[in-house]
Amino acid sequence: MPARKPPSSKEYQGSHLFPLIQCFLLDIQHLHYPSISFSPQLSSYLHCEWATIAQLEKDKRIHQKLKRFKTKMAQMRHFFHEDEEPFNPDYVEVDRILDESHSIDKDNGEPVIYYLVKWCSLPYEDSTWELKEDVDEGKVQEFKRIQSRHPELKRVARPQAGSWKKLELSHEYKNGNQLREYQLEGVNWLLFNWYNRQNCILADEMGLGKTIQSIAFLEEVYNVGIRGPFLVIAPLSTITNWEREFNTWTEMNTIVYHGSLASRQMIQQYEMYCKDSRGRLIPGAYKFDALITTFEMILSDCPELREIEWRCVIIDEAHRLKNRNCKLLDSLKHMDLEHKVLLTGTPLQNTVEELFSLLHFLEPSQFPSESEFLKDFGDLKTEEQVQKLQAILKPMMLRRLKEDVEKNLAPKQETIIEVELTNIQKKYYRAILEKNFNFLSKGAGHSNMPNLLNTMMELRKCCNHPYLINGAEEKILTEFRDSCHHHVPHDFPLQAMVRSSGKLVLIDKLLPKLKAGGHKVLIFSQMVRSCAAMMMMSSIQLCPTLGDSVGQISSTSSDLALLL
């Protein structure tokens, strides 16, 4: 979908006069709604302004929006923090500049420059045209640097194996970054395999920097004269981290290919292809050096990705390829991939069949037959089998553990805190046991097992939070309100929710202290509703990442406390 044409200067200056029915109601400034922040259509969040209810109510077409907005705010009044931003501050930070347009101001005849801006944490389809004066000059210079590059029309051949030279010291990458000693060893190993046409698996333990080693490897390949295109395939939750590390360590032009059809069409139009002076695509010439995308994009069978001759592909979380019959593997086989690098912290997790799937994808000619492979290594009972498999894997797999390479790392500390149940939890726990006494007294017979499992799940819910039990929330709120007599606090639903769970009482005290100490926190829960409760009770900004999380991931997600 082509981007909107830049407005004329007159339209731009009067953009706040657009019909209010096209506004986005964003947030309230005070509890009694004296004013509301809105952003007119065709404008970015940069031009949001506050409007009073009286101003908005003059337009009858917006009455229904106001009604829904007030209802929503009334429901959230106990969990609303007045010092919160009306919208994500990222929305006014320039991510990338996509295009440039020149026009003449109709009023004074002066030349006007507009830039098509893609905003941080917003999809490409929400890009807007902005006056030059409103755009960060650093981003303008970055855009001009990319635009001034000459397209690579001649395919540069990969150097011969004999030209490989070991890097004795880490180069100084962008921002003065340097590799650790073991990371330099990993980059040397990746380069050696690249020079020798050997696809490989980097299987370092999580936390040793597989992402950084991979990016440094691509940077070294780039400096040899192979300017891409490089492909990185990663889970949705990690693509923003990949983009950030590329921008931190290299000067490569890296784009993220993800989002709705409209966003992807904009990426194709402005970010992917080089064009000649007449605006025609130059075959085989690409504006980007590295493209980051998700497994879902590969599965969706994007022809625009299949038609590119990729000089190298890096697949993060490659254990997703362990099922030989998975659709993802089939999709990858239809892509032109000159060199393959797999990243995984668990190369051999369950069965030898899974390992064969990875090896067959990397080197189909070397590992053509699953039956023959399983015949040799299917059971791995003898030492001879293990040694033979290790000899096969040694040239193409590098596996290191933290204790092997990071001698300065402090040992992991694990503290188990026994949290006492609240009186409310004890009451419901006892009620669950009494209600299911007949089942419990029968023991763990085959016919009684489903009843026991259901009882166990109810007890687990109670230990997390009694609100997870059907009907408990309403009863607890009523009892809490009655116990307050005539002095019911305005945030009584929040207080009742926290006081009902021993775990929430602890977390409510712990999170502010951890934040004050500058810590990052990961909170894991197997129950989605427990995450929802913590989202509502916390005064600290949290970023939920649930099993069904899809869509745009905030670029700041990894800097916040996460609910998983």
From TrEMBL:
Protein's cellular compartments: Nucleus
Family annotation (CDD domains): CD2_tandem_CHD5-9_like
Pfam family, any one: Chromo
Domain Helicase ATP-binding: 191-365
SMART domains for the chain: CHROMO, DEXDc
Residue ranges of every copy of the Chromo domain listed in the record: 92-158
Coiled-coil intervals, chain numbering: none
Name used for this protein in its record: DNA helicase
Organism for this UniProt entry: Laticauda laticaudata (Blue-ringed sea krait)
